[in-house]
Design goal:
Blueprint lengths: L9 H9 L7 H18 L2 H4 L5 E6 L5 H6 L9 E6 L3 H10 L4 E7 L6 H4 L9 E5 L10 H10 L7 E7 L4 H12 L10 H11 L3 E13 L3 H12 L6 H6 L1 H8 L2 E2 L2 E13 L15 E3 L6
Parallel strand pairs: 1-2, 1-4, 2-3, 4-5, 6-9
Antiparallel strand pairs: 5-8, 6-8, 7-8
Helix pairs in contact: 7-9
Amino acid sequence: MSGRNAPTTPTFHDAIAFYEEKTLDLDRWFQVADVDYLLLLSSLDFEALFPARRLRLLDVGCGTGRFPSLLRPWLNGVPTIEYDFLDPSPYCLQVMRECLVAPFEAGQALAMRAEELDVWRQQRAATYDIVWAIHSLYCGQVEDVPGIIRNLDGLLAPGVGVGLIYIATRRSFYLQLHDLYREVFASPMGSFLGADEYAAAFDASGLPWSEERLRFFHVVPLEDHRLLESYLHKCALDPSQPLSVWQRQDSLHDLIESCREGGFYRFPQEVALFRFGVPAAGAVKLLPKPQFLTNCTAGR
């Protein structure tokens, strides 16, 4: 179901509650998770993705704008990018607008969920050269995924529009930890959606699409308990359980300790990059890069 009457899940409400200034610990999260975005940036073919002309872009699930902030230094010489952005969190929309500086030109801030994009598609202005969802689209119901894909594709400019979805797979520590946390603490949160659900929906859609997977590690020093606790809270979207409680739960303790290597926790991640739209089959490819990177070179 899509549209403004679509049902919401406990996961969605927990995400909205977590994405508030009083709850988010962005400095610590990005200390660990910036590698997700930097690996993607180092792998994209920028000449194909950003031709030398004014562009219109829609960011679906923009969060606090970390990706465009890291992207901006890579765009020397790129003309203006008119940047519309969507998120159900008012706090995220506010922070996102503040971080959009040249070559980005802040456009529409859309306070809605991806499931509601069928409403925005009816607007004349809703046509884009680029539509992307970078580490978003996790919170929702699996039956909504085909509609989300149709709406994202329908927002692309005919013949030139490129769509990107960057989302973790079930093999990633991020999703495995979230699922186990829900089980251990009997949480009402729903399971995160992941790349597997989107791949199945793309298969059934009849749209041209392709997929590549990137693998890397999130690295936390063993002695940095505050960083580990903050990181685990963000993975779970729940800051209510202190690290000492996590460590007393055998299954959670075993999963975390299985990633211990030397003086670091090295949490393995696998993220899929889906490309769709007319040029997706060939024009926007990942450049050859090492598949395994770390956010902490001392942890190798």
